[in-house]
Design brief:
CATH class: Alpha Beta
Radius of gyration: 17 Å
Shape: globular
Strand order of the largest sheet: 4-3-2-6-5-1-11-12
CATH architecture: 4-Layer Sandwich
Order of helices and strands: EHHEEHEHHHHEEEEHHHEEEE
Number of helices: 10
Helix content: 25-40%
Structural class: alpha+beta
Distance between the termini: 25 Å
Number of domains: 1
Bound molecules: glycine
């Protein structure tokens, strides 16, 4: 069995953006599926899927991400290999085009797990990952949106979700032909966030978790709430004790998120049999999945 599930954010995706989201997750899924079908690793599939989504300005990850209160892009990401328990995370990086690849580099080549800001960028340079400029990450759509709220007081990151501001964090979970599970997540975080704010996506256990003996999870949504309920590991733990049912675990996870933290967002889960779970309490969630028992992928919003 090989299996892949990916997401492109959970929010009130307006009708005019539905096709772009479907196309984005569909193309990214194809990239990952090609890797897994040719015997490639779950880690490679997750990295390359997320690279594609980071480069697609439809999503809040990499280029095209939301700007923070200073008008800058600050990116967070994480990846976890569920077989080795090795992980890599970065937060608040401002000059990295594909943060998930920097996470991969940290996972593979560092004794550390989590690097932030200029230290993460220094590690990138030392390990041959090129640095980009803010102009490579900031796009007109986001600059105009940021300008439109300047001078308005009391605009919180939670308001940004309430007012249907795009919130398309991206993520992927893969099971490869050797039975390894990997999960990863990448985001520009919330619109108008305080500089230095770190959300759930780079936090192992909150935005991302993988344990090959159980499954893998990636989350999207309001990060402050996700952190409070340690969302990704909570869903993994639920799967461990519900006979590995990813759909029931995902649904219970979202229920916990709402009840305990008044949170909102979405979660994708994959178990070690290659079965899927998806749950969200936002109006829509962009996601796509396929496994070797399916004739064709499911692309859903
Ligand atoms: N879930 C992404 C964030 O809140 O940063």
């Amino acid at each position: 069995m090989i299996s892949l599930i990916i997401h492109g954010g959970a929010w009130d995706i307006p009708d005019e953006l539905v096709e772009a989201h479907k196309l984005g997750v569909s193309k990214a899924l194809n990239i990952g599926w090609e890797i897994l079908s040719n015997g490639g690793s779950a880690v490679d599939a997750v990295e390359k899927v997320i690279n594609y989504l980071e480069d697609d300005i439809t999503f809040d990850a990499g280029r095209g991400s939301h700007l923070n209160a200073d008008g800058e892009v600050e990116l967070d990401a994480s990846i976890m290999n569920g077989s080795t328990f090795r992980c890599g995370s970065v937060a608040a990086v401002k000059n990295i085009k594909n943060p998930i690849s920097l996470c991969r580099k940290i996972m593979d080549e560092s004794e550390h797990i989590f690097l932030v800001g200029s230290g993460a960028e220094k590690f990138a340079i030392q390990h041959g990952i090129s640095i980009c400029s803010q102009d490579d990450l900031r796009i007109e759509r986001e600059i105009l949106k940021w300008k439109s709220i300047q001078g308005k007081n009391g605009f919180s990151t939670k308001d940004a979700f309430k007012f249907h501001t795009p919130a398309g964090t991206v993520g992927a979970v893969a099971l490869d032909s050797s039975g390894n599970i990997c999960a990863g997540t990448s985001t520009g975080g919330t619109f108008n966030k305080h500089p230095g704010r770190v959300g759930d996506s780079p936090l192992i256990g909150c935005g991302t978790y993988a344990d090959t003996s159980i499954g893998g999870v990636s989350t999207t949504g309001w990060g402050e709430a996700m952190i409070k309920v340690v969302m990704a590991k909570t869903v993994i733990d639920l799967m461990e004790f519900n006979n590995g049912d990813p759909q029931a675990a995902a649904e219970k996870g979202i229920k916990i998120l709402k009840e305990k933290a008044d949170g909102f967002g979405g979660v994708i889960a994959l178990n070690n049999r290659g079965e899927f779970g998806v749950a969200y309490n936002t109006p829509k969630m962009a996601r796509a999945y396929i496994n070797s028992q399916m004739n064709s992928p499911k692309i859903l919003i």
